[in-house]
Amino acid sequence: MENRPVGRKKNVTEGGSGVHKRGEGLGTGPVGSSSGYSSGTGPSENGGGMKRSGRGVNPLFMIIVLLFLAGGGGLSAIFGGGQSDTVPTTQTPANTTQNTQTSQGGNSGTAGSILSQLFGSYGSYTGSGVNSATWSDTPNIGNLNTNVDSRAREKRTVIKGNGQDNITVMVYMCGADLESRNGMATRDIQEMMKADLGDKINLLVYTGGCRQWQNNVVSSSTNQIYQVKDGKLNPLVDNVGNLPMTKPETLSSYIKWSAKNFPADRYELIFWDHGGGSTGGYGYDEKFQTAGAMSLAGINKALKDGGVTFDFVGFDTCLMATVENALVVSNYADYLVASEETEPGVGWYYTDWLSELGKNTSMETINIGKNIIDSFTSTCAQTCPGQKTTLSITDLAELSQTVPTELADFSKSTSEMIKNDDYKTVSNARGNTREFAASSKIDQVDLIDFANRVGTDDAKELVTALKSAIKYNKTSSNMTNSYGLSIYFPYKKTSKVDSMVNTYEDIGMDEEYAKCIQNFASMEVAGQVAAGGSQTPLPSLFGELSGSGNSDASAEMITQLLTTFLSSEFSSVSGLNSSNTSFLGKNLDVEKAANYIASNRFDESVLIWTKNSAGEDVISLTEDQWKMVHELELNMFYDDGEGYIDLGTDNVFDFDENGNLRSQNDKTWLAIDGNVVAYYVVDIQATDESYAITGRVPCLLNGQKANLILVFDSDNEDGYVAGVCYDYVEGETETIAKNLTELQAGDEIDFTCDYYGYDKTFKDAYLLGEKYTVKGAMSDMKISNVSVGEGTVLETYCFTDIYGQKYWTETMKH
């Protein structure tokens, strides 16, 4: 039964407040949109899957059948052819290091026994049977690599040595809501002011992008330039102008000014704010929201126009340790310091590494990076245990000369696998690979982990080149399979493929990788078109699953379905339209794809509850069908007499001795201190030694839309609250905010939920249960499953196949 998904332990306790919505609708839209449904018009974009009303027959499929019954006639008849030396005082406490015992996942003494109880013999979340990399090697966590490949170019920055180097550090600090809400920028400035910089470091800070700075020095009305010196924040340019900080020209002007006024032997540039990875870019300017983020092409322009060669470029942001970003920055810097995952709100801890650099301004750059990484990960482990933490330093002089060729070869061979009837292997590898900001569906994955799982000779060569270029990488213990650099690879949102291909053209990235992701996305979409599955649980909820979809369609039928789809407006697949589907026409061999899909597809007709020999309600799949399952989630609803409260998704599963999926019939759901909450599982990582499960609880934190971060791991199988992150209005920004470190005593939390009427429509988001006031530390907030009350509970499971298509079981009522 190695193909079964894994589930967390369910700790059931007595008590609980039951389930009830409160007050009027919030008018905020769905808080559970990760499940793939939204208000009014059907599924929201989740990047994969046919828009369907249920497991009934696909409308395209019906058209094809009618055409065959009518003796042909073609599709064309129907479709028509188709300022002072004052030290800032803050309104929030300074960043301090606490002697808090960490509770991150890891190889504890009891991990093995916990895993055997929790997972049995299963070691992977997905059902692909790929429990570890196809070809595995030694992790590069915490190992400093000082070797340099002979193919690397010469470093552009030449270090004088003997502590004689002058250094200008340019911090580009777009405060945004990280500062206005939580004073994160102010705390980092305070850390800089505590550093002993000596007399050879010019530490400059450009400020802006924030509606309200949480100190009494930095202006909220105009951008400014400061120098941190002798423990003070000295104004250099008091009024740069109220300029959007996500515009390349704003950054390039700062770079030019800094180099002119503070010439140095070594230049360092640090981006501070939000980060959205390769698709989202850098920065969220709270004062110029419509300016958007600075794309990779924008970063390239800013650095090019700035005219400075940097020793290292760092990103004290989320998600910017990407291969794409590294290749851009390699044109202007020797090293990149950045994070693959979202950063905890504490961000880099500036005091220690700046003080060390002040003692020796001729320090080797990889040692500067190591100091940044060590102090950051240590501070995060002490102040926000459980929050995912990653940071790496990459030698761009080496990467730029070694990785592009190996990546092109890997891309070619992977494309050949997809074209030669081995899409499933690539899909399984992608489905199991470490993914970052998973709930945001930005499709950013660790490239070494992905290549390891693909396992070809070209993949091994790419892994070798990447691990050589990544000189130091460190993560929290719950961040398995995070090697230091990620890459965009479509799976959750195929609608981004075209824009990323354009980005690759803009930054001069090899076209072979663009072809590879186009080939994969084309097959994924083809599988979704052929599936006829559902992207919403509502048909199951209302008892409208009415057949077997297209599970018995022949290759000829699927060919007709795909042909029809390619001649349409593409809207039958969520998120796609004629403006973002050029990748399909270039890469899809319709007949070959149809033949492959006909032989490799999930049969949704088997998602029917039956009785096993013990009289239990079960879903029974063959082993071959389990191999087609990438994800499995339990979705529960509560009937309050007027409609349905969506309680979210969880990965709690029970299997009988024959490997059949048992119904959860105890009428319990996840609660915090007895308060039933809507909970959505986000990410599951498991090895034979440890595991970590992350989920979110939508809420209003002191009136602001947010999500509590819940973690269940090897050392904390009952789970704990690891922090909180804020939500954004759709379209406000594609970048990701750093997580808050701690909830404070007195913080008020209103849990929220989605609500559906008996008329089959989404009504609104509502408050769930009573207001909750934080009484002490987050570690005091107890997580368990409690009874939801006397009302009817509706239980359905969602199966996701190798094409990213979702299928929902019949609803069980308890």
From TrEMBL:
It comes from the Bacteria. Residues 1-10 have a biased composition (Basic residues). InterPro entries: Peptidase_C11. Pfam families: Peptidase_C11. This is Peptidase C11. The chain crosses the membrane at residues 60-82. Residues 31-44, 88-110 have a biased composition (Low complexity). It comes from Butyrivibrio hungatei. Keywords: Membrane, Transmembrane, Transmembrane helix. Residues 1-52, 86-110 are annotated as: Disordered.
